[in-house]
Amino acid sequence: MRSLVAALQQKQIYAVLRQNAEGRLYGITFVDNQNKVVFNGSDLGKGYSAAALQSRLATWSEKSLIQDETKGSSSAGSIQKEITKQKQQEK
Question: Could you write out the DSSP letters of every residue in 39-74?
C-alpha cells in the first residue's frame, strides 16, 4: 500500500488511510489539491475501496513473487519474499 501512496503523491494526489485501533485498514480517501477534489475510495467505485485495493495489491505482489521464482533468480526472489512478508506484517 505504501508504494501506491508514494506513486499517488508523485502525481500530487494524497491518500489518507483510515485504520481502526488494531491497525486494520477500513477506508481510504483520495485528496487532489490541484483539482480541489476529495473522494472516498468506495465513492469512486468498488474497485477503489480500501479492501479492494488491499486485495489487488496483495495479488499483484504474489504474482510478481511467482514470476521472480520461475525466472530462477533465487536471490531476487528471496529478497522479494522478505519485502512481501514485511509489508504483510505492517498491515
Answer: EEHHHH-GGGSHHHHHHHHHHHHHHHHHHHHHTT-H
Whether the pLDDT of residue 37 is over 70: the answer is yes
Whose cell is 480517501? That residue is: 29
Residues 6+ apart with CB under 8 A from 1: 17, 25, 53, 54, 57, 87, 91
Cα Dmax for the chain: 47
CB 49 within 8 A of CB 28: yes
Q: Residues with Cβ < 8 Å from 8, sequence gap 6 or more?
A: 14, 15, 30
> pTM higher than 0.85, yes or no?
no
Cα distance between residue 27 and residue 19, in whole Å: 7
Q: How far apart are CA 75 and CA 68, in angstroms?
A: 9
- Could you read off the pLDDT of 62-87 as tens digits, one per residue? 555 555 555 554 445 555 555 565 55
